[in-house]
Amino acid sequence: MKAVVMAGGAGTRLRPLTIARPKALVPIVNQPVLCHILDLLKFHGITDVVITLHHLADRVQEYLGDGSDRGMSIHYTVEEIPLGTAGSVKKAQAHLNDTFLVISGDAVTDIDLSAIVAFHHQRKALATLTLKKVADPLDYGVVITDRRGRITRFLEKPGWGDVISDTVNTGIYVLEPEILAGLQPDTAYDFSRDVLPPLLDRGAPLFGYVDNDGYWCDIGTVPTYMQALTDVLERRVRHIDLGSDLGGGVYAGAGVDIAPDASIYGPVYLGQEVRVKGGATIYGPTVVRDYTIIDNRAQVERAAIWSRCYIGEAAEVRGAIICSQCNIKAKSVVLEGAVIGDNTLVGRGAVVHPNVKVWPGKELEAGVTIRNSIIWGSQGRRVLFGQYGVTGVVNVDLTPEFAARLGTAFGTTLPKGSLVTINRDPHRSPRMLKRAIIAGIPSTGVNVWDLGTQPVPVARYFTGHSVAVAGVHVRLSPYDERMVDIRFFDHTGANLGEVHKRQVEQSFFREDFRRVYLDDIGTIAYAPAVAERYTRDFLHAVTPDAIRESHFYIVVDYANSPVSSVFPAILNELGCNVVALNANIDESRLAIQPYEFQADLERLGVICGTLKARLGIRFDVSGERLYLVDDGGGLIPNPVAALAMVDLALRVAPGGTVAVPVKLPDEFEEVAARHGGRVIRTKVDSHALTGAASQNGVILAANGSGDFIFPAFQPTADGMMAAARLLQYLAVTGMTLSGVVAGLPPFHTLHQAVSCPWEAKGIVMRRLNQRFRNETLDTTDGVKIRFGTKEWVLLLSDPDYPLFQVYAQAPTLPRLTDRVAQFVDLVLELQK
User: In what order do the strands lie in the sheet with 635-636?
Assistant: First the structure.
């Protein structure tokens, strides 16, 4: 049997470890990770191997040759451009005329390959995928199988909100040659994205072999690399020979010299000719590779020190990686998570702080303290984007330096010479960070239009209706005045899609920024007539005459936000008589506590009732959300407001389509049916709702939390447009808001969050799917379990926090509270 070993990866997330070597040649204890894979193949009787290469291909070929010294036959294919997993195997097709195995050359594993091959033949499979259960499935493809192992569903690299299982694809396949038929040569294909899902749709026999006993670790990041070293040293990985066992968990290669008064506490590996001098101390798990010297009284703890390094007298290396041929001078300190690139000199007494990365070939002066990565910046985050964009504590997580790098990363993903809009709210923190972002973007050759301080819907509209290709908005979090949210828009004004977010994250974390020449540096200018254009187009998008003829008397709370600089002029054009509250922009009121917000709403209700106003409106500080009070002064809960708006919209446009998330009650379908309408259910996140709103025939989208999208105007939430459309609907139908609400079907819903560690989320989702597989399940978002008419429970993995969100609907309140309590307890139980 033959094997294809994929070893073309550049390992960019492992930089600077992989700057001078391909990822497959990164050492795992005593030899490169690729060699461990070859040893595993040989252990299972597979000695005929094709290795696919791309990045630094010559380094691998020079290292392994034809494989004869390992008792193997090795052939190579070299890709000019990356061809993906399937495209890479296609290039090796000439060597494959029978069942063959595909395995990654840059993972650490001892999985029983013989058992997988036997399973493949037993099931008469076209393809067998090796699956493992992992704590964090975000970076892998999730695979769902039935009881026989037949694959029923693929989910490629989900977010926490999408996770439905913890069983992932390891990238180890057993395949029949005909799976490559139909693939064009020298064309990029990915098995999990381009090849296997279409075959699954056609009913091909695809199986998953769940390995519960073997070890598997993808060394894609520095933390997972260090974990793999620890696991090998602690003998969690079978079939790896660590050399002579000196006792106490200490293993050594040939020629090791240890001073009598040196102290070594395993697990520790010492490579060939390593010297450990007097008074030196090594605490495991630690790897010290060939020809390295640990000098007198040096202390090494939980570290990886590669070949031909010198650790000076009384130096300290704790939890760090020191790459090849580094000189760590006396009394210098390298701390937790730091990585020192090849051929670097760390001067006497220098201190390298945690998580700092030093690129190869650098010289750190004696006594210097290094708090940031030497070349381009820090690697402090694994993921940039959360539910509200890039969020953090101002001047702690989000510093001007961070913001400038973020702007540079964003600009790098955009075409050179293109234009980006940037907006902020009135607070001083967003002002500071906005200017830092503006400093970064032009360095990539992208021009900036400064919108000043506009309501978010205005900024989105201008971005989507100008020549801009993207936009940025910086705001103080309305929930915490210490926090700032940096939100990114695409060319339509909608939030950036997941693919583009990943591109920004890759640019940021790889510290790989486009720097243009002097004449190509982008320009910075103020955008012309921003609010004026929005106002003009806004008035064309509604029916002003109908609203004017109704002479609405309303109360509007502007929440001390920039909405008060735009919407009063619109209401004046619509002939409304307005009592304005909190109409002065006040940066100290942009973030208020929940009790203050509730008090403002209740005050609005009292004022509306006292003045006998037709309607009360409260905006959030961004201008995107709308909170309503009816003509009797009653506060309208957000889900009821959404249902009322749907009812009114379909009265005016019967037969239309509306979009709402799966967390909202079944009464939306009931109300839509009254008017011949249709409901599209979406995921809970705002991007999914925006995408649904853009479909043909959709007249309204609402999330039940105050966001309303009227796609005929713009495909994103706009509180001002929602307020005007509500006035228009009430004018056209002649109804009052209280009358509309009174005619809605009643419902009972409840929402509760329950804590769940990140590493347990995939386990919980898998066990939920297994436990309720015989019930009616909706997996549009999370798992929604139906128990009857208007009775269900929805469980969602929170994308930002170690929580599950539990939503439920039931016919009665007692039954509803019991259901929620039942599933809160179940989520806690399934974590164990």
Answer: 577-581, 553-557, 615-619, 626-629, 635-636
